[in-house]
User: What shape does this take?
Amino acid sequence: MITGEQLQALDRDGFLVLPELLEKAQLEALRSRIEELFQLEGEHAGSEFKKEAGARRLANCVNKGNVFEEAVQIPEVLTANAHIMGPNFKLSSLNVRSTDPNSAADQPLHVDMNAIADEHGYWVANTIFMLDDFTPDNGATRIVPGSHRWKQRPQEQMTDPFAAHPEQILVTGKAGTLVICNAHTWHGGTANRTAKPRRAMHSFYCRADKPQQQFQKRLIDAATQAHFSPELRKLLALDDPENDRLSEIVAVTSGFLK
Ligand SMILES: O=C(O)CCC(=O)C(=O)O
Assistant: This one.
């Protein structure tokens, strides 16, 4: 489980690396289902959320296999999320992002959902699953440690959020490693200068009083929802009328629907 020291590091740095937390079998099952989905979805892959030049994407993954249901409920991640946001949080989305070989550009530094902590504190947390080794050359995520405490977005402080920040670091590690992020911390993917894709999965959570990035109740098939445990239903806010109200507005205005 997560130690007090690790939680202190998360408070200080805005992220925490859990080296090779995934079992080999779980990692293999994720990789193999993800590649199958890329094949099946073809041009439409990622379309429930967004497409991105230089990367393959998948969205709405809880709808797409038991292996993903397990992945959003990892106890260490849930403990860290509660530490960041308080006990009332929910899954906001589960996406895959695979940086293409020889992709040209870094992503801009950003905070997820453009979120700034409010009077109740932090409200977004994102766990990056390294599905391949993250190396200095293949598009490892860059993070600016401590920037979650600045209460500013990169675009408000930097003239060019695509540029390197003097305090940024690259988070490298072995496949199976998880990076738990306070998602107010400035971060972004980097260019992949190798001949192989760099695959990551993003398990994104938000506080209960905020809208989901992807409205899980509307996006997940009824037949799939029918076998969910009570714990998973709660994590996805499937029975929460306030979430229905909040997330429906975002779903309609953003067009993030199937
Ligand atoms: O894939 C990564 O390394 C980070 C991606 C990211 O931050 C995003 O797509 O919002």
